[in-house]
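Escalation from tier 1.

The customer reports that the assembly of three entities below gives different structure tokens on two consecutive runs. Tier 1 could not reproduce it. I'm attaching the input and our single run for tier 2 to review.
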Amino acid sequence: MSLIVKRITRYTVGLILLYGIYIVLHGHLTPGGGFAGGVIISLSFIHFVLAFGRKEAKKNIPEQFLSLGESFGAMFFLAIGLLGITAGFFFLNFIANTGTPFSLFSAGTIPFCNIAIGLKVGTGLFAIFIVLSVFKLSGEGDKK
Amino acid sequence: MPELYAVMTFMLIGAVIAVSMRGLLSSVIAVGAVGLGLCVMFLFLRAPDLAITQLVVEILMLIILIRATIGRGVSRIHCESGIWIGASFMLFSGVFILAACAALKEIPDFGRALMRVSDFYIKNALNKTGAANIVTSIILDFRAYDTLGEATVLFASVMGVLALMRKKGRKKTDERDEPDC
Amino acid sequence: MDIVLFLTGFYALLMKRNLIKKVIGFGIMEYAVNLFLILVGYRSSGEAPILDNKASDMLFVDPLPQALILTSIVIGLGVTALMVGLCIRIYQHYGTFDIAEIRRLRG
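Tier 1 run:
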């Protein structure tokens, strides 16, 4: 990619990642939530790969991060649900009414669930993109 | 509501273009336009969560589809499939339209939704969960089991794609062109 | 009008011979179904279902279909990604996207 694209990508990747994290964290106050925020986080990584190429991305984003991120997201979400299992509840929101409404710390286990889902969706979709784009098809680029 | 009809017409024109264009890249861009029209429809129908999610999912779907079609831009035109499939399509769409007209009389009119279950959710969202966004409190507190199911489906699809693309491909033995009509 | 969108996607799924056109038809069918469920749950002069500090007796649109369709949109993305992965593998093995050729070349 040309120099202008690389230069601008340096500035916008951080901004898009920050916006995605904002939508995930404020999921219980404004529209958005874990899924939309997670997709935006994965779009920021994809933006980086599209501008700089795969080799540069391999240096900066290690592959262990992707598989660990996805597995931890799923396990964290399940762990939040199973916290009340000894008392017979599944997914009980037991810290629901501490904190003032309409502020950031208000809705019990809902922000933690949003963070877990955002991590899982973000890293999972980025892993799909990486795998689909590094697989070189035979017959591509040949003259027909 | 005239703006809904206008956006719906735009989506229909985009869908017809996507289905009948020759070049694969142009069809994919037309599907992107249909998805964008759907995002605007969600905004008119007062669903901002869905509009954000649909927009970013549409962008990602375009990236993945373009990746699949980039080496094979213009396909030569295909004949349609044979006559039996055409007849069964006509039969199915006739039955479907009849059943849909019968069913559309049963559901309430546009604009007057029955909200038997949602009344409970709207009244008790703030004092039972403390979240201001009612849709988030439904998917993560009242009906969190469905969200667990969705997380599992996404996990399985990521594992499926990673398992499919595992080995390096071998070269195919001879080239085949796509047929003319 | 929504039914016409669904039938357009179904036509592409059934009658076109190119695999990518079938995937596109599937995507259009999914848009039509999502749109239909949100249209059922609309209440005229309702507001978006987000509470506020102001008066809490407003009329809201139905939030339950919105929650379910949110799930469905993201699942649709996962399924389309898997289908596209399958198409790439099929192209790599048979050399074409045409299903009549693939049926002829099977094995």
